[in-house]
Fold:
Amino acid sequence: MSAPIPVRTMATLATICLAILSPGSAYCRQPASPPTANYSVPVLMYHRISTLTAKEKTSAITVDLTVPPQQFELQIQALQQAGYTFLKASEVADAVAAGKPLPTKAVSITMDDGYADNYEVAFPILRKYHVPATIFVITSAVGSVGHVTWANLREMQQAGVEAQSHSVTHPDLPSLTGKRLDSELRNSRKSLEQQLKIPISTLAYPAGRYSDEVVEHTKTAGYTAAWKKNGGPVKPGDNLFLLPRVRVAGTELIEAFKRSVGIKSVKKKLSR
Structure:
C-alpha cells in the first residue's frame, strides 16, 4: 500500500490553482481529482494536428502521424469531461523524480518535431480549453518551411505550452557516438534555453530510439529525464530516462482513444 498523503498536501493540490506566470500573462489550472501517490498518467504522443491534403492521404506514414483537428478537439473534450487534469511533460517527470503525488486522473499532451500546425491548428484548440502541453522541438528545423518559429514557441510558452528537446536534427541517436551524439543532445538544449530563456530539463528520443550509451550521454548533457515511445502510462518509480508515452494515431477514432487512456464509456440503458 502507498503511504497516506498528508491532509495539508491534499488540500493544497485539490484547491489551489497551479499558476504558471510569465511576463504579462498567466494561466491557471484547477485540479479535477484528488491527489494520489499511486498515480497512472498517460502521456499522449502526437505529431501533426492537421487536415490532410489529397496528396498526403496517399502516404500511410503521414496519415498515421496526423490527427485531424476535429478529432483532436474531441479528444480534449473527452478528457475534460472525464475529469482529467492536464499536466506538462516536465511536471510529470518532476513528480516521478521527487516522489510527489499527482492528481488521480491526470494526463499530458505532447507533440513531437515542432510542425507548424502545432502552432496554427493545435495551439488555438489548447488555448480554447486552457490546456497546457509540451512540444518536443527539433531545433535545426525551427523557422524552416512547415515548422514552428521561435516567435511561435515564445507565444505558446506564455500560454502554458512548453518546449523541450527532441535533438538538433532528429538522427538515430543509437547510431551516433562521442562528439556527434553529445552535439545533438547538448546543442539542442542550449539553443532552446538561449531562445526561450527557460531551463530545458527533458528530452524525447527521436523515434523513441535509445541505447545504454544514449541514456548515459543524455544524463551528462544535463537532462533530468527522457521519454521513449510506448510502454503505457507513467507510474511512480519509473526510470526517469525511459519514461513511457502513449502514441495517438491519426486513424484512431474517439472510442479507441478513450480506451487507450482509460476513459470508461457509459452505456445508456434503453427505455422499454
Q: What stands out?
A: The two ends are 45 Å apart (CA to CA).
